[in-house]
Amino acid sequence: MILSNAQEAKLIDLCKKFRKELIECLHAVGSGHPGGSLSATEIITTLYFCELNVNPKNPNDPDRDRFILSKGHAAPMLYLNLAEKGYFDMRELCNLRQLNHMLQGHPCAKTTPGVDLSTGPLGLGVSAAVGMALAGKLDKKKYNVYVLIGDGETQEGIIWEAAMAASKYKLENLIVILDHNKVQLDGTIDEIMPLGNINAKWESFGWKVIETNGHNIRDISSALKEAKQVKVKPTIIIAETVKGKGISFMEGKNIWHGKPIDDEHFNIAMKELSGGN
Length: 277
Ligand SMILES: Cc1ncc(C[n+]2csc(CCOP(=O)(O)OP(=O)(O)O)c2C)c(N)n1
Ligand SMILES: [Mg+2]
Known about the structure:
Blueprint (H helix, E strand, L loop, with lengths): L4 H25 L4 H6 L1 H10 L15 E4 L5 H11 L38 H15 L6 E6 L6 H12 L5 E7 L8 H4 L5 H7 L3 E6 L3 H13 L5 E6 L22 H11 L4
Parallel strand pairs: 1-2, 2-3, 3-5, 4-5
Helix pairs in contact: 1-3, 1-4, 1-10, 3-4, 5-6
């Protein structure tokens, strides 16, 4: 879909709101993953509010687009989007990561409406998506399967097995988005396990590669539009992002991958997100 200026402005506001709500929820619960949720904010929000053909009133519609959050630790950003779409009551967010509640630390397809696959163990999302996309092709369905992966996650061998299979089966209905924030849990990608020429790697596995700015809603939506026009091969959108985007002390810092937010940092973060720094 082509974004109007008004729609773009609306999505930018939504992302601002989601960043604040994310920090409020993670501060309240004293755990969770801020860094990778903040890098994926615009990607997930553009998907839900400008791309995915889904209906919160019929979450299991067989013709719906699928979305898999393969980097499952960014679950709170997914939950904020699902709640805003109307899949469940906003008040559920207050029970984030609590036992016997709907919104667990990682997405659970059994308990949360709108979650297409339970994730958490990194690497599995693309393999499951290959199955969903292949099933869609065999059943002559029109839906697309979208998967969000992390760059640290890309070090998992299963990603590359799935990449080979997707290419073999010519899954043009499969679109992977890479949250390329250059940071993983323990350090930078280059320190832990460099990915090398990531574009050339995916191309050599038979994929169409599209690069985009992962914090620019208009660029993300054009990349998605281009991806849907690709024929005979799967597509990966390499989205350039910043881990911890929007909060100065978190940006590019692996320590904020999964660190609890104390009161002092909460106050600074909220001030910055409210534009008062
Ligand atoms: C198989 C597996 N190994 C380890 C972990 C623990 N873990 C959770 S997130 C993470 C780092 C992921 O880095 P990246 O994919 O770059 O995520 P992002 O930067 O987008 O948060 C690790 C090691 C896991 N969830 N699954
Ligand atoms: Mg990363």
